[in-house]
Specification:
It is a single chain. 74% of the residues lie in helices and 0% in strands. The N and C termini lie far apart (84 Å). Helix 1 runs antiparallel to helix 2. With 166 residues, the chain is an all-alpha fold. It folds into 2 domains: 74 residues; 52 residues, Orthogonal Bundle (Arc Repressor Mutant, subunit A). The longest helix is centred in the middle third of the chain and has 29 residues. It has 7 helices and no strands.
Length: 166
């Protein structure tokens, strides 16, 4: 069932193609998808006896509209049932209220004040362990002290934090 140059369906296709594509494009949001829908409508639904062009165009508009709405509905369904692969940094973030932000900034200032009052080795050991993710052995090598000494420094720093942050 091919479309030949002398076929009446082909003549109707040429006569109404642009109007139907222009009709389907806003529904689908894509001219390429609209062209696919219009072609599908002609291949599947245009009767062999497409004699009366006055009746044919409204008939085709209805078919194209229905097919376009079906495509749009299928897209929405696919989006709803597909896993969300948006990376975390692309999602909207909840920044909280201005009061929460002010309290958080105040806590950061308090931590900074406690850190600035610590002896240099204690501060470095704590920062490397808590903020840098270094292991005790790596901190010991960096500070040129024993692992037990690193453990004592970190323990003392945490105790100081606990006392001053109340």
């Amino acid at each position: 069932m091919g479309i030949k140059e002398d076929d009446r369906r082909y003549t109707a296709y040429l006569a109404h193609r642009i109007d139907l594509i222009n009709y389907a494009t806003p529904i689908l949001g894509s001219r390429a998808d609209a062209e696919d829908v219009v072609q599908e409508a002609f291949l599947k639904f245009v009767p062999e006896d497409a004699d009366n062009p006055d009746k044919l165009k409204p008939y085709l508009l209805r078919i194209v509209r229905n097919l376009a709405l079906d495509v749009r509905k299928r897209r929405r369904y696919d989006l709803r049932h597909s896993p969300d692969d948006t990376p975390f940094w692309g999602l909207p973030q909840d920044h909280g209220s201005p009061e929460d932000h002010a309290l958080f900034c105040e806590q950061i200032r308090s931590v900074e004040a406690v850190l600035s009052q610590m002896p240099a080795r204690t501060r470095i050991a704590l920062e490397m362990h808590r903020f840098g993710g270094y292991r005790m052995e790596e901190i010991a090598t960096h500070l040129d002290i024993s692992v037990a000494s690193v453990h004592r420094l970190i323990k003392a720093a945490l105790a100081e934090f606990a006392a001053k942050m109340k």
